[in-house]
Each structure stands twice: as C-alpha cells, then as structure tokens.
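On clarity, I found the account of how folds are encoded harder to follow than it need be. What matters is that the chain and its backbone geometry are given together, residue for residue. For the editor and my fellow referees, an illustration may be useful. For illustration, here is how one protein appears when written out as sequence plus structure tokens:

___
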Amino acid sequence: MHVHSPGPTAVINRLPFGAIHVNDVRLWAHVGVLHHERREGQWFSLDFSLWLDLDKAALDDDLNATADYSLAIGAMQRLSFELKCFTIEHFSERLLVLLEDLYGPVPMRVLVRKCAAPVPGFSGSVAVERCRNWPTP
C-alpha cells in the first residue's frame, strides 16, 4: 500500500467553492522603518482574497449570499490613514483582523506591496503575503 501526504491540491479541494479576489487597492499609509516613512506616508498596493461558498449568490443572484467587498475597501482606507507602524508585517496583521471582523473566520489572504521601498538603486516593490483561517491538510 502506497501512502502519501496530501499536497496543495488536497488543501485547495477543502476550500469553499469560490473566492472573491480584489486587486490593486491603493492605500496611502504611514508604515516603514524610517521616520519620514511613518511621518509623511507612502503608497501601498493591496490584494486580498476571501474564500466563500458563492453557489447561492451565483444561482439566485442573491446579494445577501455574497460578501460586499466595498466594505473592506472603505475600512482599509480608513485604517491606512490611522495606523502608524514600522513593518509591513504588522500592517498585514491589522488588515487580516479587519477582514475577519467584517466577514468572519473564512479563509483569506492579503498581499501588501510597498510601491517604492527606500533602497538606493532599487525600483521594484517589496511585498508581504499572509493567510488566515486556511484549512490544514
């Protein structure tokens, strides 16, 4: 008998039957190691996903059976103006808590990108990706 551990596909198969993905939410936030980053702020780009059972919304065109992502976008915009912290990791934690407060303990993911990291000679972005309420294999 051959026994193997479940791979990523097995985990995906245990997720609800749909996901809402919201990409490129632009947020001005006061996050960074350098004092001027926290004082003046800078642009971040955020993607987030919520795994939900979307079958009822899809079959019945029922708004009450889905998640209103505009609530998350508005709450994230408010949070980004209020929060001052050193790390993108902490910013991502606060965003996950916000999403969980709005939608409950559903599987979720955030990807937070600092659009212009203050590193000489570097023109790319730096990102932190985190998940919450992910099924265990």
The chain has five helices and five strands. The helical segments are 8-13, 35-40, 55-60, 69-82, 88-103.
